[in-house]
Amino acid sequence: MIRINTKAQLFCVVVTLLVPASAATGAWTAPVVLSTSGQGWEAAAAIDANGNSVALWEERTTQDQLWSRSKSSAGDWGTVMEVSPALQTTSVFPAVRISAAGFATAVWSDANGVWTADRPPASNWNFPELLIPGVSSPIFVMNSQGAAAITWTVGGPSSSSTSVMAVVRPAGGSWTAQQVVASGAHVIADHAGIGENGAVIVTWETYSATCRKYGCSVTSFALHASRQNAGAVGWVDSGSMLGPDVAAHDARVAVDAAGGAMLVATNSSGAFASATEGNSGGAWSAFKTILNPEGITITSDLASDDAGQVTLVYEFIGFSTSQAFAVSGSISNNTWSSPVVLSGSDTNVGQVYFRVASGGLALAVWLNSSATPVVRVAIRSTPTGTWSSPVTVSGPGTEIGPEAAAVNSAGEAIVIYSGYNAASVHTEYATNYQP
Fold first, then answer.
1. Which residues pair with 333 in a beta bridge?
2. Do the Cβ atoms of 379 and 413 come closer than 8 Å?
3. 273 Cβ contact list (under 8 Å, min separation 6)
4. What is the pLDDT at residue 24?
5. Strand pairing partners for 264?
6. How far apart are CA 326 and CA 306, in angstroms?
7. What is the rounded (10 degree) CA torsion for 37, 38, 41, 46?
8. What is the pLDDT of residues 77-136, one digit of tens each?
9. Nearest to 40 by CA among 395, 433, 420
10. From its phi and psi, is residue 270 left (phi > 0), alpha (psi between -120 and 50) or beta?
11. Are 293 and 341 a contacting pair, CB within 8 Å?
12. CB-based contact 180:228 (threshold 8 Å)
């Protein structure tokens, strides 16, 4: 049984009063079936500056494959295109990013390692490349110019040594050889961010592990952040920033266009705390408390627009309810607004997705399971503006759940959700937003 103290309950009641009025005036299209010939799973989505959308998913047929469809801003979804045949697993968890000009990159993994493929604007997908053999769980980031980075962890709690590794790609260039971000007895990658100037920051942690016959217990997390500026060689380690303790874990980082960075983590008292770094790197600021939910939270994501306006979205879990919250801050001075409820009157919220465009427009998506499950969204039209009231975007399907979302600075957006159709086929559905 989960117990939350009365302060946490009061926190939820007070913040609920801050729910904003509707700020979005556009419309969502009726959901369209994306996957049509098998079982669709694990979708990813992206949208470029002109409103052209791309969707990617795993299609489980006689042999699992990675498929894609594209949609122009004013057009319909095109035909299915194969990205990768005969995947050697059933859990590839694809990711796709797209530049402002429409250059798309997909990253996924199977039993052979991490794969990637590119799709130039108005073209087909290039043949996939096994980029990192023998690796899984990649963290992939890309900016609007097409510069990108992938980071991953080698080894685990039972290993005698571990490493955080990365490959990077300049806009229009090729992937580098594998680089060591950090190494030690026990290290693990948490998150990554990339700025428009190509600066990449990877958050990671050290920890202690005690392993016995039936598993390992891990403790004493200590938070680090390593940076590589565009054109630089090697990674600059911040040193231990928080911990070692049980809370300095799963830190998130956001980077603005000039390379300024915001890092958010949970401190030893359970509060969200933030630190900032300058455009070229250097010492991080002291941590500043953002808020203390005094209860159970799940962080959805942290993201920055080009100007350094940062948004943190998280889920708060109470006695019998859960809600989605957002809090906004600034990299320039590390100040934060009061949190607001994104999910309105929805009180059984989960599977929260969140995206911010380079211009500051933001999209939040979640599953509301209060009655019949539905996929709900809220939009923020300006970097520091109010969030719209939630609207339902899902249509057909049972056992539905959101899987992907994307938004551009013009306010155009895409949401992909999945569910079983009337024939019990697991199906991917897409809906688009036009402001």
1. none
2. yes
3. 242, 264, 265, 266, 267, 287, 288, 289, 290
4. 55
5. 252, 274
6. 19
7. -10
8. 999 999 998 787 777 899 999 999 999 999 999 999 999 999 999 889 999 999 999 999
9. 420
10. left
11. no
12. no
Collapsing DSSP to helix, strand or coil, 86 comes out as coil
The strands making up 53-60's β-sheet, listed across from edge to edge, are 39-47, 53-60, 65-71, 81-84
Q: Decide the pairing of beta strands 340-341 and 95-98.
A: unpaired
Query: Residue 8: what are its φ and ψ, rounded to 5°?
Result: -65, -40
Residue type, 272: F
Written as six digits, the tokens of 28 are 């969502």
Q: Is the dihedral angle over the CA atoms 289, 295, 301, 304 positive or is it negative?
A: negative
Q: Which two tokens stand for residue 143?
A: 């900016």
Question: pTM for the full model?
Answer: 0.92
pLDDT at 320: 85
Q: Of 365, 363, 359, 407, which Cα lies nearest the Cα of 383? A: 359
Encoding tokens for residue 258?
Answer: 């000039």
**CA angle (127, 129, 130) in 5-degree steps:** 150
Pick out the chain residues at pLDDT < 70.
Answer: 1-24
The confidence score (pLDDT) of residue 21 equals 34
Nearest one of 404, 256, 403 to 331, comparing CA atoms: 256
How far, in Å, CA of 145 to CA of 117, rounded?
17
183, 172, 103, 168: which is closest to 138 by C-alpha?
168
Give residue 207's pLDDT.
94
SS3 state of residue 14: helix
pLDDT digits (tens, 9 = 90+) for 253-311: 999 999 999 999 999 888 999 999 999 999 999 999 999 998 899 999 999 999 999 99
Helix (H) / strand (E) containing 13: helix 6-16
Contact 261, 279 (CB under 8 A): no
Predicted confidence at residue 11, as pLDDT, reads: 34
DSSP assignments along 103-172, one per residue? -EEEEEEETTEEEEEEE-TTSPPPPPEEEEET----EEEE-TTS-EEEEEEE--TTSS-EEEEEEEE-TT
Query: Which residue in the block uniquely carries the two structure tokens 């989605």?
Result: 324
Q: Given its phi and psi angles, is residue 384 left (phi above 0), alpha (psi -120 to 50 degrees) or beta?
A: alpha
